[in-house]
Amino acid sequence: MPQLSRRAFAGALPLGLIGGSLLGGGLLGDSLARAATQDAAKPPVVVNPFAQIRIGRFTVTALTDGYADMPYDYFPGRTGAEVEQAAISQFTARQTGVRFLFNQYLVEDGERRILIDAGAAGSIGQTGQLPDALNALGLQPDKIDAVIVTHMHQDHMGGLVLGGKNNYPEADLYIDRRDVTHWTDPAKRNGAPDYLQTSFRMAEEVVRLYPRLQAIDGEREIMRGVSIVDLTGHTPGHIGVRIEDGGKSMIMVSDMIFPVVHPAATDVFFLFEQDRAAAKAMRDRFFPRAASEGALIAATHMPFPGLGRVVADHGEMRWQVADWALQD
Ligand SMILES: [Zn+2]
């Protein structure tokens, strides 16, 4: 990872921007500075961004349920200090850690609406905005025909259940069978750390409330142009979704790639990954292939709308943000 010391970082900035001296000093004056402080105390206006791209006959809309900051020491394989340095060098450092977005993708072809992932729904960080985002598109949850959940971590399936009820009553639900088996296994649950218990609890609830759950065995087409890709590693049944039509394609890779640490390295993990060898193998396979194919990628936790490509740059893999508007 690129190294950049905090002192070098501060030294590179114009003098007036260091330590908040623009606000506190003479430039704005004391009363204005006080007003700015009072404004900061008000709850922020919630914005529901969405971005749309065309993939052949499909419209893909990126939505977001919100965000959470992951402490720098949540990335086994690197020290917290190393991850923080990487964030500083990418100008994304926050005191609270690495910001994870929670992006979902709505796929429409005029006949069917498929939602990929359902968000954390308030179970972590500043989340729970997906229903408002759908509402902004004029959609209630009962207008969704199918939900594909890429794996059974709480930040991907939380929104399936609202107030103890099935929140997508008209939807077929697709989840890989290996994840359904893993996350409903009492023995696995008993042996799991505290931070995974919410996912185990939610998985049991989802299975109970979704009689239309279809456990997926291997790669298959859900409808013409929408197919499941096996990306086992992050969890046993971690899957991606390929959208393909009219010579264009996009692959939603879920937790294949995390901000700040990927795709530059594959030996750095996220705390929730229970089988690190499998997670590393997944990324070792995928990053070079994605780079050589120039695949358009959608990734849950990358900065909104999570669209980009893995590119090989002088022997190092990096994330290249893709156009997400006015791209035709
Ligand atoms: Zn995730």
Summarize the structure.
With 328 residues, this protein is α+β, with helices and mostly antiparallel strands. Helices cover 26% and strands 27% of the residues.
C-alpha end-to-end distance: 35 Å
Helical residue percent band: 25-40%
Bound molecules: zinc ion
- Proportion of beta-strand residues: 25-35%
Q: How confident is the prediction overall: mean pLDDT?
A: 89
Total helices: the number is 10
Please identify the oligomeric state. single chain
Using only C-alpha atoms, the radius of gyration works out to 21 Å
- H/E order of the elements? HHHEEHEEEHEHEEEHHHEEEEEHEEE
Shape: globular
Alpha-beta classification? alpha+beta
- Uncertain regions spanning at least 5 consecutive residues: 1-33
The overall strand count is 17
> Describe the biggest sheet?
8 strands, mixed
Family: Belongs to the metallo-beta-lactamase superfamily.
Protein name: Glyoxylase-like metal-dependent hydrolase (Beta-lactamase superfamily II)
Domain Metallo-beta-lactamase: 101-301
InterPro entries: MBL_superfamily_lactonases (IPR051013), Metallo-B-lactamas (IPR001279), RibonucZ/Hydroxyglut_hydro (IPR036866), TAT_signal (IPR006311)
Characteristics:
alpha+beta; MBL_superfamily_lactonases; zinc; 17 strands; Metallo-B-lactamas; disordered N terminus; metal-binding; binds zinc ion; Glyoxylase-like metal-dependent hydrolase (Beta-lactamase superfamily II); 7-stranded mixed sheet
